[in-house]
Design goal:
Alpha-Beta Plaits, 6 helices, 3-stranded antiparallel beta sheet, 7-stranded mixed beta sheet, single chain, 2 domains, alpha+beta, about 270 residues
Length: about 270
Amino acid sequence: MTAKRGEGPGGSGAFERRLLLAVDAKGYGGADAVTQRQFQDGITRLLDEAAATARLDRADWLTQEGGDSVFAVLPETAYEPALIDTFMRALEAGLRAFNQNRIPRARLRLRAAVHFGPASPGSNGFFGRAPVEIGRILDSAALRTALDESPDAALAVAVSAIVFHDVVKEAHTTLREEEFRRVSVTEKEYRGEAWIWVAGTGPGRPGTEPDTTPPSDTRPGVDRAAGEAVRQQPAARFVQNVSGGTGIQSENATVTITQTPRTTGDQP
């Protein structure tokens, strides 16, 4: 993905395609004034620290802030994998440290969205299709539900289709494709898809454990049905009977092999 700059034919100003980030805090409106101030301070500090870890200089970001929320247009040189991977992992680690020993209602938990598309600064914020789309993804019921369903998680991230396919699916991050869950987003006039990753949960649906079922044996010439029957066969064990014989005992039957004791004078 590369940014393109130029004057549109309709005279609408500079056309630029940029990497976008949006963040919003859960439960901010229901918090008291002291907690709200702590949340605001925490968001600013944690975003700064995560950006520094990912080498994404926040001084170059164009931001629009609103108490518990931040919308940012990153510079054209911003490295997408660093935002999705290193930045988000550092942000999640910072949130966990911030929330250490805090009561549940005072914990800072964030929803974040990442998108790439046309965005330009206007007289009252940013205009273009991408700022609208990332706002819809951030506010979507799917992303809110993902965070609600994982009460121990501090961060839920939704990436747009273009970001997922170009960055995550192409293996440009340490986050694996199967760690994301595809969702439909229907908010106001927007219809689209997003992929959600909830930090600290296993692959697949947030809040569930990964499937640990062993794979079937698919080697050529292997009868899987017969193999399953062998695996389900009761385990056998050797037993000694009172007459000195040895038997093989399973759940279904006992077969005894009798051994006649030798007497004095028998040849070995």
